[in-house]
Amino acid sequence: MSNKGLLSGAFLCMVGAASAAPADVQTGQQLYSQCAICHQIGDGAINTIGPELRNIIGREAGVHPDYRFSDSLVEAGADGLVWDEATLDRFLENPRDLIPGTKMNYRGMRDDDDRAALIAYLASFGGESRDVPAAAETFEVAPEILAIAGDAAYGEYLSGECTSCHNSSDADDGIPSISGHSPEYFVTVMQAYKQGAREHPVMSMLARRLSNEEIAGLAAYFETVD
Amino acid sequence: MTLNRRFFMGTAVAAAGALAAPMVRAQGKPRVVVVGGGAGGATAARYIAKDSDGAIDVTLIEPSRSYYTCFFSNLYIGGFREIDSLAHSYGTLASDFDVNVVHDWAVGVDRDAKTVTLASGASLPYDRLILSPGIDFVDDAVPGWSVASQNAMPHAYKGGSQTELLKAQIMAMPQGGTFAMVAPPNPYRCPPGPYERVSMVAHALKESNPTAKILILDPKPGFSKQALFEDGWSRHYSGMVERIGPDFGGENVSVNPDEMTVDIDGMVQKVDVCNVIPAQKAGHIAEVAGLTEDNWAPVNAADLSSTMDENIHILGDSAAQGDMPKSGFSANSQAKVCANAIRGALTGSTVFPARFSNTCWSLIDANDGVKVGATYEATDEKIASVEGFISEVGESDEVREATYEESIGWYQAITEDMFGVS
């Protein structure tokens, strides 16, 4: 719905080798690869599965243009939660401990030093800084694939294969919600599985046998589902 | 059984001279009757009702008011789920999808009159009938055991009270006692199920009764996810689990529920809990309807219609369909293909090509989950597998934990897909 500016179908798939940086930031960059599946950061970052994380330090929780947060996170922000080193540290240690209803499907980072390094990395994108992480790898879908007009009725039928595992609510219990994404984003992620840029046993298998037209159909259908 | 069979044969003969009989309820909406409210039947009822938007009258016949899923019941035995979390009602299917939910037993099918008879005596006409009755047990499959002895030696292979009974018996075992499982021959519901159960029993006993033993008496030379389970048992439950395969008498087992003994190829052993999972067959109503052959109901892959009656579809465990394992996931997948085909036949809506998939997650110990899955397509002969995957021995703790968490997400999703979001 809200991911219109998808930069010609590219998304940050993974953060590559670090540039010259203080040691802990460099460690943090490596640790960020876990986060990069859902959160973009750096120049041109946009909201994808999770909100983009530039200038996260000092941001009020649950507030970011065009991103639909869980009700719990919105409430926490309204109650005064602001992301700083201390609150991020608590959140990242065990997200559901701090925000029980969060959509973020991450079990937490137990090591204190790792969290400090990750937060240092996040903080390096604060203020006016718009540094691009060096050697960021991106996955791009060919424009002609993105241009395919999907048959939403066929997509609705095909979606039966998705809804056995992806539930319709916002609660990301082990398996993320897949409703309400822009077709460009949906197609890009599915093509990343289909073409091997992303791997997951179930998703890779299912995506490989979907044709480009079928993926477009699914994207057209899921855009309409809240 | 004989009576029912005669009932069917008799009506077939009687109707032979009346082929021009008017369609039942020709004036009204087409009627679909679904027998069995599990992963196949509930899903089919919901999808037909939802997608036809009132154009098809859908009736679901299911004796239980609260449906306890068999999938995840092992997690209750292991202490990872509460029994109430496995219970689901049919209220949302009735209120939000206008499915006519009838809590009764289907006891007869008159294929010529196209009616289903209920235990209450009522008769329901159908244009299409879906049978999704799950499994029943083959008589005398394990000598000495019958449904009459299922309290002494529970099968716990249909969800609900049997699951609770087995768990209670496990928790009451004497220190150092023996839990025996008589494992079933192929094919049966949920291929990894008995071995996940062994894992969950071991998990429960490891805390409360660490010197207890688990004995698997198995007629099969190998089993689903064998390497993964055996690796997990040696890592988590070293010395607790012993499996006796067919080479050592596992295929020649009888039981004595009164004495609580098992006879393994002539060697009699006293046990404290005995979980007998007998050989299985299609749910009884499929046999009553005259649609089974060698214990299961053969179907056409494209729409799950019976090879013996084009107006009856058979879903899930009861169907002999080809390569898909008998699982709730498979039944749910088949139900959506079947629903699309029936809707097309009755209302002229587009029928899309069949495609199926299955994934089975199993829990070995806390945060140690594994999975196996495949995609399938319809061929002229059967549902045929296309591509598959399986977890590997030696995966990281993070992968195993994520796999377990996926299974929790799947449970939430599939039960919403069956019963609607309450």
Overall description:
The complex is a heterodimer of chains A (226) and B (422). With 226 residues, chain A is mainly alpha-helical. Chain A has helices at residues 23-31, 33-36, 71-78, 85-93, 95-98, 112-123, 143-146, 152-158, 160-163, 183-194, 201-209, 212-223; strands at 11-14, 137-139. In chain A, α1 crosses α6. The relative contact order of chain A is 0.17. By secondary structure, chain B is α/β, with parallel strands linked by helices. Chain B has 10 helices and 24 strands. Chain B has helices at residues 2-15, 41-52, 73-78, 91-97, 161-171, 193-208, 226-236, 284-288, 328-347, 397-419, and strands at residues 31-35, 57-61, 66-68, 87-89, 100-102, 106-110, 115-118, 123-125, 128-131, 135-137, 178-182, 213-217, 241-244, 253-256, 261-264, 267-270, 273-276, 280-282, 297-298, 312-314, 319-320, 355-365, 368-378, 383-390. The chains are: A mainly alpha (226), B alpha/beta (422). Chain A binds chain B through residues 105, 107, 153-154, 157-158, 160-161, 163-169, 171-175, 201-202, 205-206, 208-209, and chain B through 47, 329, 332-333, 336-337, 340, 350, 352, 355, 357, 359, 371, 373-375, 386-389, 391, 401-402, 404-410, 412-414, 416-417, 421.
